[in-house]
Specification:
Belongs to the ATP-dependent AMP-binding enzyme family. The chain is α/β, with parallel strands linked by helices. It is built from 14 helices and 26 strands. It folds into 3 domains: 138 residues, Rossmann fold (3-Layer(aba) Sandwich); 218 residues, 3-Layer(aba) Sandwich (Rossmann fold); 74 residues, GMP Synthetase, Chain A, domain 3 (2-Layer Sandwich). β11, α10 and β12 form a beta-alpha-beta unit.
Length: 485
């Protein structure tokens, strides 16, 4: 099944608005019709199974184009609207793209080869006004490639994750199931759609007949809080930095009432327990879902039931419906309870592979299992805990050290807004530990450093103590909101 038909199976005739907001709105039936016209246009002039790049902030333009590309049987390649020219050139060449949809607001930033057909908002409007959809039909196989999402590779070269129509359908069904989403749900979207977490919000609310409100200016916290209240949002989704900023930077967030907010979800990295605890205490009636996922899994792999947030603090929970986990050691043998190893995942949401990277694909997917690269344990109740990325594990004086354990301790200091633990070369230990600290408000550097090291000395083994403590003025985040390390 084409994922487009799956999204609109029961909503294509709805006059209800899918996109809410003061700047742009569009109903389900209008979005369905407009996207079909884009699909028909693409099939007539471009064909099918071609790679088509889409560069745009979250908007009606992005949503309509994205859905039209999927329906046409072509492959959507959504890119960061702040992508570097060098990386854009690489992706254009690698994907052999000859059509780019790009928002006018970012078009002037890029030099695009003259042979490429460039389509902006005004061109899209003309296509919608003039294109017929009579007798439109393109067959799409369930395992056919739907999109390529590029992530930063370990070498710095972008790596394309290939996601099929079946991958999206499987992951969307699972997310809807455990979040209990219905047509009454309204999501405040601050995550960009070129990011798999952001796309999952679009997918799930399209499918159930819910609505979304787009907020592309998270740093203006007042606007976010107003949207949550004014549009009676039932859901909010964020990465760790979003919650850290709301809890530490906003003076009114914790004292504001959000009567319609049923739940929040957090993924995109570990949000340390001190922040989760602070949120849950401030909003005891709002369900807090800790989640874990990867682009290679379409979006989501596990979630922690909000009822278990205190009993299983720091856990990523259990696999989502129709996904299996196991943990293996260096020999590939399944580990026992509370024994560390690499986390593996299996399900219909696991990617087809990396685009034009056969060797990398074979190293990552073996016998249907996705090797996540995350070191984890499972407890006696079947709850999973991440210890570190395999590449992030530090070796101090021959001993394995997880950065997350040290970060958790330092973040318990009230003044600390964020902490990043990293290693650096040391003649004595081989690798020594550096703590990079972001503080909320003014502070005395020497006094705070002494306080941090005192708490570390009480809660950590001596070899886990930071040898360097560095202070930075602000939290550095990427376009997805993830912390830049």
């Amino acid at each position: 099944m084409n994922v487009f038909d799956y999204f609109f199976k029961s909503t294509q005739n709805l006059e209800k608005d899918f996109l809410l907001g003061s700047k742009e709105t569009i109903s389900f039936n209008k979005l369905y019709s407009n996207s079909l016209k884009i699909a028909a246009f693409l099939n007539r002039y471009i064909g099918a199974e071609k790679n088509i790049i889409l560069i745009s902030p979250n908007s009606k333009f992005f949503i309509t184009t994205y859905l039209g590309i999927l329906k046409s049987g072509n492959v959507c390649v959504p890119l960061n609207f702040a992508i570097e020219q060098e990386n854009l050139d690489f992706i254009i060449n690698t994907t052999e793209c000859d059509t780019i949809f790009i928002a006018k607001s970012v078009r002037s930033k890029y030099t695009i080869p003259s042979y490429i057909h460039v389509i902006e908002e005004k061109d899209l409007e003309q296509i919608i006004d003039n294109q017929s959809i009579e007798d439109y039909y393109v067959e799409v196989k369930k395992n056919q490639l739907a999109e390529i999402i590029f992530t930063s590779g370990s070498t710095g070269i972008p790596k394309g994750v290939m996601i099929s129509h079946e991958n999206i359908i499987a992951n969307t069904n699972s997310i809807i199931s455990y979040l209990n989403l219905t047509s009454k749900d309204i999501m405040c979207v601050v995550l960009p759609f070129f990011y798999c977490y952001g796309l999952s919000l679009l997918h799930t609310h399209l499918r159930v007949g819910g609505s979304i409100i787009l907020n592309n200016s998270f740093m203006f916290l007042g606007a976010v809080l107003n949207d949550l209240k004014d549009y009676r949002c039932t859901g909010f989704a964020g990465v760790p930095s979003h919650f850290q900023i709301l809890l530490k930077k906003s003076k009114t967030f914790k004292t504001t009432s959000f009567p319609d907010l049923r739940y929040v979800t957090q993924a995109g990295g570990k949000l340390h327990s001190v922040f989760i605890d602070e949120f849950v205490k401030a909003f005891p009636k709002i369900e807090f879902y800790v989640m874990y996922g990867q682009t290679e899994a379409t979006a989501r792999l596990s979630y922690l039931d909000p009822k278990m947030i205190h009993k299983k603090m720091n856990s990523i929970g259990k696999p989502i419906p129709n996904v299996k986990f196991k943990i293996v050691d260096d020999k590939g043998e399944t580990t026992g309870v509370n024994q560390e190893g690499e986390l593996l995942a299996k399900g219909k949401n696991i990617m087809l592979g990396y685009y034009k990277e056969e060797e990398e694909t074979q190293n990552t997917i073996k016998n249907g299992w996705l090797y996540t690269g995350d070191v984890a344990i499972v407890d006696e109740d079947g709850y999973y805990y991440l210890k570190a990325r395999k590449k992030e594990i530090l070796k101090v004086a021959g001993k394995r050290v997880s950065p997350k354990e040290i970060e958790e301790v330092i973040l318990s200091v009230e003044e600390v807004m964020d902490c990043t633990i990293s290693g650096y070369d040391d003649d004595l230990f081989g690798e020594a530990i550096q703590a990079t600290i972001v503080v909320n408000g003014s502070f005395d550097e020497e006094q705070l450093k002494e306080k941090i090291l005192h708490i570390c000395s009480k809660k950590l083994a001596i070899y886990k103590m930071p040898q360097k403590v560095v202070f930075e003025k602000a939290l550095k985040v990427s376009a997805t909101g993830k912390k830049i390390k």
